[in-house]
Amino acid sequence: MNLQTIVNSLISDTVTTSLPLFKPELVLCVTIVVLLVTRLFPGLNKIPPFAIALLGGIVALWASLPAGGIADWAKIERQELFTGMLTYDAVTAFIRVFLMAFAVLFIVLARLTGLADREDGQDFYCLAFGSIIGMCIMASANHLLTLFLGVEMASVPSYVLSGVVKGRRRSSEAALKYAVYGAGTAGVMLYGVSLLAGILGSAHLPTMAQQLVEFDIAGKLAEGDQYMQVLVLALGGLMLGVGLAFKLSAVPFHFWCPDVFEGASAEVDGFLSVASKAAALALLVRVGIGFGHVPGETPESVAAAARPTATVQLAAAAADVPPAVRLIADEAPVTDGDAETADAAADTGPLSPVRSFFVQVVGIVSVITCTFGNLAAYGQKNIKRMLAYSTIAHAGYMMMPVAAAVALVGRDQAAAGDAVSSMLLYAAFYLFMNLGAFAIIAFLRNSMQSEQIDDYAGLIGRSPLVALCLTGILVSLVGIPPMAGFIGKFRIFQSLVEAGGPLMMFMLVAAGLNTAISLVYYLRVCKTVCIDSPPDTSRPVALGFFASAYVLALSLPVLAFGILPNSIAQWAQAATAGLFG
Amino acid sequence: MDSSWLPTLLALAWLTPLASFVFILFFGKHAGPHGRFAGTVATGAIVFSCVLSFVAMFGAWLPNNELPEAHHGDHAAGGDHDEHAEDGEHADEADHETFIRPAASPFLLASSGGDRGTISLVADTAEGEGDSAEHHIAPNGKPPAVYGVFYNLVTFGKLKLDISYYIDALTVTMFCVVTLIASCVHFYAIGYMHDELHEPYTDHEVTLTDGTHLVRKGRFYRFFQYLSLFCFSMLGIVIAGNLAMAFVFWELVGICSYFLIGFYIERHSASTAANKAFIVNRVGDFGMLIGMMALWSSLGTFAFGDTQNDQGEVTEPGMFSVLRTEENHYALAPTESMEVEGARVVGEGEEGESSHAGQWLLLIAGVGVFCGCVGKSAQFPLHVWLPDAMEGPTPVSALVHSATMVAAGVYLTGRVYPIFTPEALLVIAVIGCITLFVAATIAITALDIKRVLAYSTVSQLGYMMLALGIGGWSAGIFHLITHACFKGLLFMCSGSVIHAVHTNDMSYMGGLRKKMPITAYTMLVGCLAIIGAGIPTSMYGLSGYYSKDAIIEQAWSFAGANRGNPLLSILLIAPVIGAAITAFYMFRLWYMTFAGEPRDHHRYDHAHESPRVMTMPLVVLAVCAIAIGWSVPGTNLSITSLLEQAQPVGTTPGAEGVLAENLVVPAEQLSHVKAVKIPAGWAAFSAAAFGVLLATIIYLWRMLNPAEIRDSFKPLYAFLWNKWYFDELYDLIFVKPTHWISGLIAKFDRGIIDGIIHGTAATAKAAASIVSNVGDRTLVDGTVNAFANRTWDFGLMLRRLQTGSLRTYVLAIAMGTWITYMLVSFIMVARGTG
């Protein structure tokens, strides 16, 4: 094989396979270029940048939608793009639709609140789009280098975005903190990447998983004198995790979050809390499944391969066990005879130590994150700071199903897919809830010049629509029916029950308790808004028609999806049906 | 019209009140002066519903479903029932050949020569027919019904929550009755609530701290808004095709009654009564939830009807079909999953002996669902809310006490009738029996005109439950319908009186018949109907005559069938005595209000007949109260034949207890034989006549002085006057201990928990101040100050930007990674080596 053939095959792979599937990102790239170019020419700079950005966003959203409608998702086969750097499957498609939809909503919001004004509108949109491209890469990363590249591409524009309000000291301070913190964690992550790649001899996730199988962790641990190698591996994994934890704002790498959220403008907070978080969660799924699952592996094949002679019968018996019926306590009665097969069906296989490592770390971190976020939100006076802690807590909730999914991979891949779908579902609901909340905060900031919770007192009298929408969104964030948040939480809890085991039960209990804890600070805002009498210095709140429509357009789905969650839940399920190719 | 029109028609009739509610909710305040137009909208909506219901009945139901021969209204012809098995075209062909399961038929037992006391009467009556040997009652099949799904709310695995419909003769009949009475109430309310149109409205019942009366805005439109929602909710229960949907509307009815009872929210008594009604109902609903869980976890469906595919094959059987399968001749038998589920709940039986686990579970489910009905239909021991509920405006009382709220409980009991085991039925009967007796006795002493009627409602509901419990399904439901008419009438009459004299207290009334003749004589019709006036053993009488006699006949038949257990004969004695008491207190009420001389001349002089918008509904309802039990001349169309058509699947042959072995629930048609009918008819008649006579002696002819009687039975009088001390008892048993416990917990919270928290906080504060003084002020500030000495400007900026904390943050990255790694590696090593 000479260089010519390599180059040729590379070109054909790129042009025929990869680029068509990379369309939405390319559209965004083109939009960025167009935005920058129009500024240079005197005639063209009359075109409002918002129009270009909106057009670009909508085209990208259209390009990201699957050709044959949502039903097509279930049929998407897993593919590797750009010689294995990226992976393309239904989850990528789902997250991309999510991100592109978010991008459109976000630029509309920035326009409505006047954050992106005529002067530096181009910059703002370019930064946002650049970050979104990074997030798309995060969500489809299949290689540790693209992983790192994606994280950085998503982060660096965010640093600038959080300081986009020039001349405000807090804003600049937030940007600085964010950048320094991000740089620190990026360094740690890069170190982790180099450790992992060094030990396993590759940075391509499926190859690394294959290497891990051969690495024989269980055997090395058992021998005793070789466990140092495993420890180095664990260190690499943890350091990689630091980078993810930074993006997720998981405890103890959350310090940036409250300061940045308080300092940055509310619109940017919405961007950071929704898009950035969703991409980070998708990346967490990629990493968890990338290391914990070799493509093509099924529980039966693993069980058969692990104990080829003795357990063939048992494995066959395990295959006969009817698929678990979800959502109802209708499990087949487990008798003594079944218990053995249940053991056989339990997580075996060479990668199970990796999985249990991942599950335990993510599980425990998620519980701590969730609890910390909710407790710290208690005394906050600034609504953005409070929502920052709420974001931390929600990151915790959303990490739980990822842990559950990885725990399930070795046993029941359909259930594992379901667990991931519950995360996607929650992320989708979270878009409406959090973007809605931050949009309301931004609009209120414009009219009352304050972001203190106390100044929202008696809002119901001044602007009933906004007060109602805000209350509905907060109630949904707690997770009370009939709001969408309830369905999301319900599905997450369901995936935890599905996964079973003491750790999952602990997480379930912790998540349940956390829901109760979070009630206090969300409802405190609701009380302030709806019951407290307005302060004497209150100013009238007037939202324009478009602003009201925007708020309503984000709030109504929160209620509607709570009552009729089926459509979106089915999309999420379709997106994860083929996750384990 | 095709019967496929039924769902459309009834859904429209069901949703029209909702539309009216929504309209008034948004525009009611601005509809006409002070929202006057709202009343018109609500009334128009319910009248439209009523018309649709009747169109559904006569246009879509009757032409498509042939009526069976009526039995109950047909008092003269005592005997010809032997062709019962043939009367429904739906009865399965196979049933004629196959003998029914022994346990389901008392006749088979009789011929097999058992030694039980149950047999003799059954055999006697059968011989009276002359064809005893061949006579057996085949179980009826599924009644003709239309089942389907309007909308699938959500599907979680096996759990399907639908908005569905189950339409049989009972549904259509109830639609007609509910909408008719609600229409009357709406018209009546336009007149009665007229005061609310005044702006501002002065509530004379509420005295503020400064001695003046409360002045508020009129709430005319809001009243009709609630009424519309109330009707929508009630119709929702009636049309519901599954138990879950019924439960949703069940709760909606509850919340509507809360709104309406508490309509005069500023009055303390009204808000307390609303709370009481709501809370007491929640107690019952708790039981209902348990029943629903038991049913769902073991049957996996809430649906009443079967889902069929296009070929007419049953794809998903409803719960009645699951419990009463065709193979089992529609006899109630727990399913296998019930046995398993039940064994899990009540435990396995002894070796070699059937544990009846499934039967127990069915009992739990049945009694659980019935608990909800106990709350809603104000049965003992949850009857306490209903008399207080008259704090609401009188039209509400009329609606609550007749066609909506309390009817819901009896209706649901009737609807889920196929799931009740004989033991559950016994529970229902005993509860009904206690209720009817207790409430009737309390009504004797009450002086508040509405309170008398309220207790009479409770008592009559007891009759209905008793009838259902002893196997008289159509008797109980029939009484529900007749009672709805005459109790609505009675309440509206009482409202008319109150409207005229501005008091509820009967001791200020008297002689009013001269002032308000329409009210007086329509109320007399109501009184005669409720006591069941008619010519004994003939077929002529007011509506109550047919339904009440049917209940007493069934009780007679039940007592005969259970002769082995004398305790159960109370179920016969109590309703007969109750009939006498009913007659007594109803006529006491009428005499005290309308007859004799006026007791309060001032009020008498100001009294006047109510406006026509209020009296017209009275006349309409009076006609119903007289005639609703009759059959349409020349046809066999009557309420009874409709009910016969709706007879729940498999319930005609009665049943026999499994857990309680001596219990026999006799077939309902056995109560129509002469040997039962004649003595029962005379017993009912003489009881009622005795009650009327006694009332006449005391209150009309004044041969006995009520005050003297009161003094000679002082302890008994006090006992009844205080309503058997139920409120005090509940206060002592439930309210006081709850207060005590919550007080204790509050103390614990304030004293100990808060103490701990405050202590912790104080400790943390102290520790923080030490850290702050020593660590922060001395070390950090010292360092920073030293640093700032050289680069003063830069340092100042750093301090302003809190760079110190950023440094901490970055340190935290490294420390976090390191600590996590140490923990993880420690655990891994410990595991790997250990």
Instruction: Count every helix of chain B, treating DSSP H or I runs of 4 or more residues as helices.
Output: 31
Question: Helix/strand-derived class of chain A?
Answer: mainly alpha
> In what order do the strands lie side by side in the largest sheet of chain B?
1-2
The tally of helices of chain A reads: 24
Low-confidence stretches of chain B are: 72-135, 790-804
Pattern of helices and strands of chain A:
HHHEEHHHHHHHHHHHHHHHHHHHHH
Trace the largest sheet of chain A across and list its strands.
Answer: 1-2
Q: Portion of residues in helices of chain B?
A: 55-70%
Largest sheet of chain A: 2 strands, antiparallel
Helical content band of chain A:
over 70%
In percent terms, what proportion of residues of chain A is strand? under 5%
Runs of chain A in which pLDDT lies below 50 for 5 or more consecutive residues are 306-345
Label the overall shape of chain B. globular
Mean pLDDT of chain A comes to: 84
Distance between the termini of chain B: 81 Å
Number of strands of chain B: 8
Shape of chain A: globular
The radius of gyration over CA of chain A amounts to: 24 Å
Class by SSE composition of chain B: mainly alpha
